[in-house]
Amino acid sequence: MEITIKGTMAEVEGVQPKVGEKAPDFSLVNLKKQIINLSDLTDKPVLISVVPDIDTRVCALQTKRFNQEAGNIKEVHFLTISNNTAEEQANWCAAEGVDMELLHDTELNFAKAYGLYIPSAKHLARSIFVVDKNGVIVYEEIVPEMAQEPDYGKALDVVTNL
């Protein structure tokens, strides 16, 4: 798959999961050093927000938007994943006053399972996945231009109607 980064073509490695498929399971560590497994989050739907680099403007906007929504919608697990280090994520959260669930994928396990790694950028592709209680992907968006924000409205409509 190809996307653009400020107009330049970039290859996204791997195969991306599609709507209707079982979401690939993953285990990542949060900022409290707890292991979060997707397979354990079956009590309510999950919105996975993937950002390339937490320290950039669009990633900050995306994370803040879903942090705000997480405060209002308790019936959904909101996760933000990037391949930033835990320290980078913690510093950003402290500076921005964000307290949502951030998971770091420095080993690229999630990136490979979801086919989202961009070798030329050394980051994950900006994307959103909504997973229902049965572990099935019911919405996916891989943003075609990395510098653009995702369609928050569509993802939130899907997840709040589950």
TrEMBL record:
- Please name the NCBIfam families in this protein's record: PRK00522.1
In its UniProt entry, the species of origin is given as Vagococcus entomophilus
Molecular function (Gene Ontology), one example: thioredoxin peroxidase activity
Tagged with keyword Oxidoreductase: yes
Tell me which residues make up the Thioredoxin domain. Answer: 17-162
Keywords in UniProt for this one?
A: Antioxidant, Disulfide bond, Oxidoreductase, Peroxidase, Redox-active center
Coiled-coil annotation: which residues?
none
- For this entry, the protein name equals Lipid hydroperoxide peroxidase
